[in-house]
Amino acid sequence: MARIIDYEDLALAIEPDREGRYQVRTLSSPYGLTAEPFILPFGRQEMEELVQKVGVGLAVPARDLGPTESKQPSSASFRETGARLFRSLFPGTLHETYLRSRGRFESRPDQGLRLRIVLPVDVPDAGLLQALSWELLYCEQTGDFLARNVLTPVIRQLALSGVAPSLPETEASCVRVLIAVASPRGLPPLDHADEHARILQAWRQQPKAKVKLLRPATLRGLTEALRSDHYQVVHFICHGAFDLEMGEGSLLLETPGGEPYFVSGDVLAETLRASRELRLVFLNSCKSAQVARQPGQDPLLGTAAALVRRGLPAIIAMTAPISDSAARLLSEAVYRSLARGNSIEAAVADGRLALFQENPRAWEWITPALFAALGDSNVFRPLCSAAENLSTRQEEAVSLLKRQSYGRAQELIESCLEGGEDLADLYYYLALALLGGRQPRRLKLEDFRRVEASARRILPLADRAAHHFCFLAFLQRDFYLTNYLLPPEPAYNDLLKQAAEAPFDPSRLEELVRLVPEARAEIKSMTDRLESAP
């Protein structure tokens, strides 16, 4: 089965205390509630420089309209910044709370600790606190970055009163994803075709997912699309911008004539808020999570913050410029994880890891920020469990095999195996897809080895059954014995004996005959053994 992480919450709020300073207070924790003084890790000027430094340290962007710099801070500098952020968020007893909470799941492989940071919106330093790269949190004791570890994902939440995202009481029949693409004339081109293809491939393993493309994305076209169907996810592929003087973020959609059209966060939020089915808005554009941080500016005029203020349940946005290649890889990794049944926070952590694996020297994995207002079970609810999803995909694979669509069946089964499934039937069906309706004796040796290797994977598995052994015996007879070659262990008769002793399902044996008529001889030999047994 796919590994699905069950998270416990460690929610921390940074807020004013009674003396006019700041405190960090636990809202939920596996080890009780407490509060400690929160000391700003940097002075205002240093915090401004930090925000600038993080933006400079990322790869040359393609989804940003502003100038770029080539000088990048060192890895040690980033690590030290992350450590300072960690020490400021976990002072005093909170440090022990974190370590004890983390230790709680170390012996539980399918449990993790979800760190939820609740940031203020109405204090003088609200903008700077929101602008800090909390995704860079680094624990020196454990030697890892929290947000990059699927066991310790980091979520942002804004301390907004009266904002309570609501989801429909009834679940939709499928996950509908709307991809809105805007590539206006005169702006750097985006490889939106590749990103669209990656998203389609990622959702392909989830039969209940429907992906629709809106291109070009005009504001009117987006409105009409949202009114004509029910979408759970809206994904934007476009450029982003942030006006430092106004403190306002925007996406660049298109006019009907293909010219750039700036859509502010407020306008975008009003456009999306009527779609009550929305679980997730993915703003895959530069600076979509950037906030105003100068005194007197409203920190809620950033694109992502405006969506949070309007009650959108979950938003993935970029705190800085992001390269086009990284944006495309991030989309693929996040949606592939969601399609497997993972929660949104696990999916974003998987996306960060994919970026790090692609280029360990780059720091673009800290660019995505996840804003969520509800727990993981409510932010994005997969329409079927991982087990149900696997069963559906397996049935589809069998249907493809019966229609002799062997290539598509192979892709579908391999996607199940990539998701961590380790079931005998998957290896058995993969072997059938690789065989492709051909006679084993006619295969080249390297092609047969691939079929045989997949079929033999069932041997050590606990869920092996009679039809698996019969198929393996057929392969051995038709390739090795027919060609007068010495087969590997177990021998042909031993395979038939194990088939007779294994659990069997008559419908699966009939299915094997339909898929491989020549295997009828092995099934008959097995049933003869059963009938002659005392």
Adjacency order of strands in the biggest sheet: 9-8-10-14-15-16
Range of helix content: 40-55%
Sheet of most strands: 6 strands, mixed
Structural shape: elongated
Q: Which class do the helix and strand fractions yield? A: alpha/beta
* Poorly predicted runs of 5 or more residues: none
Oligomer: single chain
Rg, nearest Å: 27 Å
Number of helices: 19
Domains, number: 3
Q: Label the CATH architecture of the largest domain.
A: 3-Layer(aba) Sandwich
Estimated share of beta-strand residues: 15-25%
Distance between the termini: 38 Å
Classified by CATH, the class of the largest domain is: Alpha Beta
What is the name of the CATH topology of the largest domain?
Rossmann fold
The average pLDDT value, as a whole number, equals 87
Number of strands: 16
